């Protein structure tokens, strides 16, 4: 099997915390910066050829990267990370334009020997870098293992802190999708970790179909409606009148809705569980001239099903009941993104 040939990474489940205090052990060592060329660090590389005799050598870390390279940081004896390393090696022959590299923690000679024995037993043939000082763990911010990173052909760090290649990265696509695109010659995007588990994770999925009830002060809300199901497209918004970001976003949502109300139903969900909150919401809506906005209240389960982790959060549900688009926080391009989503939602 040729070296540096890769791989679609399919890893399982639970990550394990790396047990170290990086600042205490490595004073003065700084994490690698995204979108910058990695420092010229001398590393010990253990390479294997049948019959799997160890052939270690020293070389520059940057010299390892001749193609976009997927890196997996792993710990000997930790089953999830060993599984990731093994899957990486097994899939290494499936790629022509991407390389693979394993970084193995080696805090002491016992751990190094255990890891190298395992590598030989499993007939791992992709290069293995031994991280004896934890410098690479800190550089890649490998707080959990397995920890994935991607370095482009120029030695520039593009992606780090990914624990599951099937989860969306901060760039949007999953690591699996990014690797498939890289194999076709497309550039690797910058992604600092995985996308947070929020409403954006529902894009392309069936929208949560939860019941919401009209707020007692709402002038235009239906007595009850549902956030999911097929039918007229819906714009579902979670917000709070005391939230500064929501205070700025809601008038823009209202203005867009006024221009498109024949094409889409607006469902805004907020807290109405106390007299103080209700009074503040009424005052806010009146002061902004948007009191005709449909306002609903919902159970905690609705927030959970919609994976609301921050406000404002909005999502467009298409006529087929699927989530077309979702955004969290203030959106500088709100009208543009809503127009795009509505075009797909019909």
Low-confidence stretches: 1-28
Question: What is the spatial order of strands in the main beta sheet?
Answer: 3-2-6-5-4-8-9-10
Overall average pLDDT: 86
Number of helices: 9
Q: What would you give as the CATH superfamily of the largest domain? A: Glutaredoxin
Strand content: 15-25%
Q: What is the distance, rounded to the nearest whole angstrom, between the alpha carbons of the first and last residues?
A: 51 Å
At the first level of CATH, what is the class of the largest domain?
Alpha Beta
Helicity level: 25-40%
Using only CA atoms, what is the Rg? 25 Å
Quickly give the structural class: alpha/beta
Tell the overall outline: elongated
- How many structural domains can be distinguished in the coordinates? 2
The helix-strand sequence is EHEEEHEHEHEEEHEEEEHEHEHEEH
